[in-house]
Specification:
The complex is a heterodimer of chains A (about 350) and B (about 250).
Chain A lengths: L1 H17 L12 E5 L5 E8 L4 E6 L1 H6 L4 E4 L4 E3 L15 E5 L6 E8 L6 E2 L4 E4 L8 E4 L8 E2 L2 H6 L10 E4 L8 E5 L1 E2 L2 H5 L4 E2 L2 E7 L12 E3 L1 E3 L3 E11 L4 E2 L14 E8 L15 E6 L6 E10 L1 E2 L10 E8 L9 E2 L3 E11 L1
Parallel strand pairs in A: 3-7
Antiparallel strand pairs in A: 1-4, 2-3, 5-6, 6-7, 8-27, 9-10, 11-16, 12-13, 13-27, 14-15, 16-17, 16-25, 18-25, 19-23, 19-27, 20-26, 21-22, 21-25, 22-24
Chain B lengths: L1 H12 L15 E16 L7 E9 L3 E10 L4 E28 L5 E27 L5 E14 L2 E12 L6 E10 L7 E12 L4 E10 L16 E12 L1
Antiparallel strand pairs in B: 1-3, 1-11, 2-4, 3-4, 4-5, 5-6, 5-7, 6-9, 7-8, 9-10, 10-11
The chains are: A mainly beta (about 350), B mainly beta (about 250).
Chain lengths: ~350, ~250
């Protein structure tokens, strides 16, 4: 009896194994890494996989002379132009890289963007509508002066949980502007069933200078925002206009309403050393921080309120030629990084500026 | 799957030429049996998709099967039977998948589509009330064979597990990549409540009233409905009951 049982089990197991087919050919077509000589960079290269962008942060000389990137792609894939071909930033230079997957079925076209913030003034007049092939969502993101993306938010992460409509994303444009046609509105939104699986019950509103990477969304969401854009010299102050309305009920991570607690907004700028971006785990605690300008009062402001916050030097001042990064971060829930806040908290920002020394 | 069929054929083969039939005065009669045993097998695709790369483990669940069979022996050798059984069917498996398409829909109408590469562990344990109907061949006093079909209703379902050590790409192989250390899934509520299929069995008398039996049931209806996209291939209940039949 036992022997027969064993035989049958073995037969079943054996037959299952024998059913395994040949491995599927790789359908992925990513640029996995794009390596540039570190001396040419003002900020680490960022590959935006969702929007298929290679963002380069280059020193002036490198921009003039061109660079020679080393590119790796998904296993078995092909990239054109090839890794090691030089990339020049004149009219005839490479603008796009096309990766063909190992199975030949998929192509992903990456656009090269050279990011350089000329004027550190942001009026939020122009917005891009972002989506990607096959996706059923659309969300807004402020467009940079040259059309390149310098701002980011958690919107893409929220899109992945199934939010689709522009107005349902925390960051969007509003016609309620201090000046011009538009301002940036950030609103803490309710989570959904899928985010609930990750014990995320609110989507705190945020926008920041930098990039948002989806890789660590489940492992550690605090590592998703990659704060900062290359900066030169020392800033004097951080100025702008804002309005803030906290939502009615403040809730903790587990959706318990905390009576008597009111949500607060957070607006701050951080200057730090190096080319590697800080994230939400270390943006206010890293040893690389040089100076910060933090809005002291996150309470409700029904009317447009001006802020002018001098940078406070807390770390070692920069050597003249050192590479530094500037991060600007705004959130409609100051404890949003711990998924605590009030649904409906709304922060509107307009005409913000880093005033140079 | 071939191995299983071979095992079944061997059971049949042992019987050949065992005995002479003593075909004297036979009167048609009703027989009653209590059936008890355990189910071993799998809720699995018959044709493995190439996205399943490796089976790293398999273990049966505690799956008792208990029932009552009424049979009518029309002639000495031929008859028919009908039974009512409570059948647990389940298993655990660990496997490795690559570019495995999945679509998850949530109670609030949310939808996540993507392809997963990594490790998967699934536990299945479903309870059915099943009604097998068979033609029965009794070549001699020791052996008894049956062949027929069954219908079954699900009354309790479990289909859950974890995905780990991998990543999922939103929307397909070119979409946003999210690393997954470990996440759970539960498709128990998605399962179809009605199953039907073929079944064949053999039993050997070991006592005056007691026989040992083996009975293979092969589901022909996918366990998930067609609009379920958590797994993009049909899966069937394929189980072997090993146990005893007691004639009352």
């Amino acid at each position: 009896m036992n022997l027969r049982k064993l035989c049958c089990l073995a037969a079943i197991l054996g037959s299952l194994q024998s059913c395994i087919k040949d491995a599927p050919q790789n359908p992925e077509a990513d640029i996995v890494s794009f390596t540039v000589n570190k001396d040419d960079l003002t900020g680490d290269v960022y590959i935006d996989q969702t929007n298929a962008k290679i963002r380069l942060y280059l020193k002036e000389e490198a921009f003039q002379k061109g660079i020679v990137p080393t590119i790796t792609v998904s296993a078995g894939g092909q990239v054109s132009p090839a890794s090691g071909d030089s990339l020049k930033f004149d009219n005839n230079g490479i603008k796009k890289y096309v990766v063909t997957s190992n199975n030949g079925a998929n192509k992903k076209t990456y656009t090269v963007e050279v990011i350089n913030i000329g004027t550190w003034k942001f009026d939020f007049e122009k917005w891009d509508t972002l989506s990607y092939e096959g996706a059923d969502f659309h969300y807004l993101n402020p467009a940079g002066e040259d059309g390149h993306s310098v701002w980011a938010s958690g919107n893409i992460g929220i899109a992945i949980t199934g939010v689709t409509e522009i107005a349902d994303f925390p960051l969007h444009a509003t016609a309620n502007a201090y000046e011009g046609k538009y301002a940036a509105e950030i609103e803490t939104r309710p989570g959904n069933a899928l985010s609930g699986w990750m014990n995320i019950h609110i989507f705190p509103g945020s926008m920041f200078l930098g990039n948002f990477t989806t890789d660590s969304m489940m492992q550690n969401p605090l590592k998703c925002p990659q704060f900062g854009q290359p900066y030169r010299g020392m800033p004097k102050s951080f100025t702008g206009y804002y309005k803030y309305q906290p939502g009615a009920k403040f809730q903790d991570r587990n959706e318990n309403i905390i009576a008597g607690k009111t949500d607060a907004c957070a607006i701050y700028a951080v200057l730090y050393n190096g080319t590697e971006r800080l994230d939400a785990t270390n943006i206010l605690t890293s040893e690389r921080i040089i100076a910060t300008a933090i809005l002291p009062d996150g309470s409700a402001k029904a009317d447009w309120t001006h802020f002018d916050i001098p940078f406070k030097v807390t770390g070692t001042p920069v050597a003249p030629n050192a590479q530094v990064m500037m991060a600007i971060i705004a959130s409609s829930s100051s404890e949003g990084d711990f998924y605590r806040g009030a649904i409906g908290s709304k922060l509107v920002l307009d005409n913000i500026e880093i005033v140079h020394e | 799957m071939l191995g299983m069929l071979t095992a079944a054929t061997q059971l049949f083969a042992q019987n050949n030429g065992n005995e002479q039939t003593k075909n004297n005065d036979f009167k048609p009669l009703l027989e009653h049996r209590i059936l008890a045993g355990f189910n071993f097998g799998a809720t699995a695709p018959v044709n493995f998709p190439n996205t399943i790369r490796k089976i790293n483990g398999y273990w049966p669940q505690f799956c008792p099967s208990l029932g009552y069979e009424l049979s009518y022996r029309a002639t000495k050798k031929w008859g028919a039977s009908v039974a009512v059984k409570m059948d647990y069917k389940g298993m655990g498996t660990k496997d490795e998948v690559q570019y495995f398409p999945t679509i998850i829909t949530t109670s609030d109408g949310g939808r996540f589509a993507g392809t997963f590469s990594g490790q998967n562990q699934t536990t299945v344990r479903n309870a059915y009330v099943s009604f097998p109907v068979s033609a029965v061949f009794t070549p001699n006093d020791n052996w008894r064979f049956s062949l027929g079909g069954y219908v079954a209703w699900l009354f309790s379902s479990n289909f859950y597990g974890t995905v780990s050590d991998g990543y999922i790409r939103n929307g397909g192989p070119l979409g946003a990549k999210i690393i997954i250390t470990e996440a759970t899934f539960d498709f128990g509520k998605e399962m179809r409540t009605f199953d039907c299929g073929l079944q064949a069995g053999a039993s050997r008398r070991v006592g005056k009233k007691l026989s040992v039996m083996g009975n293979l049931s092969w589901g022909l209806r996918p366990v998930f409905p067609g609009d379920f996209k958590g797994m993009d291939f049909p899966m069937y209940n394929i189980y072997l009951t090993l146990g005893v039949a007691y004639k009352i």
